[in-house]
Write a structure and sequence with these properties.
By secondary structure, the protein is an alpha+beta fold. Helices cover about 35% and strands about 25% of the residues. Strand 14 and strand 15 form a beta hairpin. Helix 1 packs parallel to helix 3. The protein is globular, with a radius of gyration of 23 Å. The protein starts with a strand and ends with a helix. The N terminus is likely disordered.
């Protein structure tokens, strides 16, 4: 197991006063599997005359907004293309504490500050989580339509041009300096408009257009397994909403999902109730009904105000870079297994990719090449590969059966586990843990699995 080293935390801020984050690193292959391959970015790329580097960001979610803002601040001529400027993506909406400070998010876009969680087993055993949190620590709950719009507006204020348009395809250049020609349908923000076919010439492209990324298809990035997330926003009575004031719930069991979990997350004036699955997508509505039923006493009298569904990638794409085109966020496949977290990693990858472009172009004054963009992949893999690997293992061990899930919930009651879990989630830094505590945890985990399997055998006898 792994424990966490806490990063120094910059206090919460109401206003934006962020500086560009420029980084330098060695290079690494286009994979989360760390193999040795060194690609050196060319410093002989031609300087641009009478104009700055032009970059198009396709997609206006957290990845696109963060990328566009960083590019614009870094002297790059930036275009952000997004079709649905009022889009409310189906998403649990949980963000870690470090994102609030790192991305200078104002407190008024955070609906709830969750300081308590309940992990509920297949047999409805509930374990309270959160006693290791410090007074200033919490998990932020946001609505994607609010967060995404804020990040796009901030990119626009920094100098990016936001285009209400649908990206269609791109013509690739035959050399390292000619432009990419993007084809899109422009809507100019007019409701019900049929749109107008347009083109845009740029020097590089960042694909931040989600799990069904057209940019990924354009560069032959390959497919990946994906989950279907289904969520209902439910307006519940005020007295029941008070129960969820600073509380989130997670349900595990074959009834709510064979390979994921169900959730009840609080928002400003409603709760988001949802679930997801990779292996049984056709049964997603059945799993959603089971999640509602598991929480029925606490959401009784609620009215469904919105129904949402969306694919969520389960692992990075085989290719995340080609020429002067790079993928970030869900388009690249940056969603963690076990937890299903993607918002922070989307914004972080967008910013890191943009930083590589700004650095490689010397603040927009020089053409970039694949070597410049590959620096982003190397740094990303080096920083986050351990997190993805650990959560992948946890999902395979504890989500495979109801006895394993019972053991998982029991294990979540351990204070050491809670500290590791929250520190990992809140601060995104993994280091070796306490060997003695790790050993005790291993013994307790084995004991939990044995007890859960013994209980299953006894229940099987009663059902015969």
């Amino acid at each position: 197991m792994a424990s966490i080293a806490l990063k120094s935390f910059i206090g919460l801020r109401q206003t934006t006063a962020e500086k560009p984050h420029l980084m330098t690193s060695q290079t690494k292959p286009n994979s989360l599997n760390p193999r040795k391959l060194r690609v050196v970015a060319s410093k002989s790329s031609p300087r641009l005359t009478n104009r700055n580097l032009r970059v198009a960001v396709i997609g206006g979610g957290p990845a696109g907004g963060a990328a566009a803002e960083t590019l614009a601040k870094g002297g790059v001529e930036t275009y952000l293309i997004e079709r649905k400027l009022d889009n409310a993506k189906p998403c649990g909406g949980a963000i870690p504490l470090c994102m609030v400070g790192e991305f200078d998010l104002p407190l008024d876009i955070i609906d709830r500050r969750v300081t308590r969680m309940k992990m509920i087993s297949p047999s409805n055993v509930a374990v309270d989580i959160g006693q290791t949190l410090k007074p200033h620590e919490y998990i932020g709950m946001v609505r994607r339509e609010v967060l995404d719009a804020y990040l796009r507006d901030r990119a626009k204020a920094s100098g990016a041009e936001v285009i209400n348009g649908l990206f269609l395809k791109m013509d690739k250049p035959s050399d390292g300096v000619s432009p990419y020609v993007l084809h899109y349908t422009g809507y100019d923000g007019k409701p019900g408009s049929v749109g107008e076919k347009r083109t845009l010439e740029v020097d590089a492209v960042i694909g931040a257009d989600g799990a069904n990324s057209r940019v990924a298809k354009a560069i032959g990035a390959g497919d990946y397994d994906y989950a279907i997330a289904f969520q209902e926003r439910i307006k519940i009575p005020d007295d029941k909403m008070a129960y969820y004031q600073n509380l989130a719930e997670m349900y595990v069991g074959d009834d709510v999902s064979p390979d994921f979990y169900g959730w009840v997350f609080p928002k400003c004036d409603h709760v988001a109730v949802g679930t997801g699955t990779v292996t049984h997508k056709g049964d997603i509505k059945k799993f959603q009904l089971a999640t509602r039923n598991r929480a029925k006493d606490k959401i009784l009298g609620g009215q469904i105000i919105r129904v949402e569904a969306h694919p969520i990638p389960e692992h990075p794409r085989p290719r995340r870079l080609s020429g002067r085109v790079a993928l970030v966020g869900d388009a690249a496949g940056y969603v963690t297994k076990c937890s299903g977290e993607g918002i922070y990693f989307a914004a972080k990858s967008g910013r890191m990719c943009a930083e590589a472009v700004v650095e490689g172009s010397e603040n927009g004054k020089r053409m970039v090449d694949e070597g410049d963009l590959r620096k982003y992949l190397e740094k990303w893999d080096k920083t986050y590969w351990p997190t993805y690997k650990v959560l992948d293992v946890l999902q395979k061990v504890f989500y495979r059966s109801n006895p394993a899930r019972e053991a998982f919930v029991e294990m979540c009651g351990d204070e050491y586990v809670q500290k590791m879990t929250f520190d990992s989630y809140l601060y995104k830094t993994v280091v070796p843990g306490n060997p003695w505590e790790d050993l005790k945890l291993a013994v307790n985990t084995i004991g939990s699995l044995v007890r859960a399997n013994a209980l299953r055998r006894e229940m099987d006898k009663l059902s015969v």
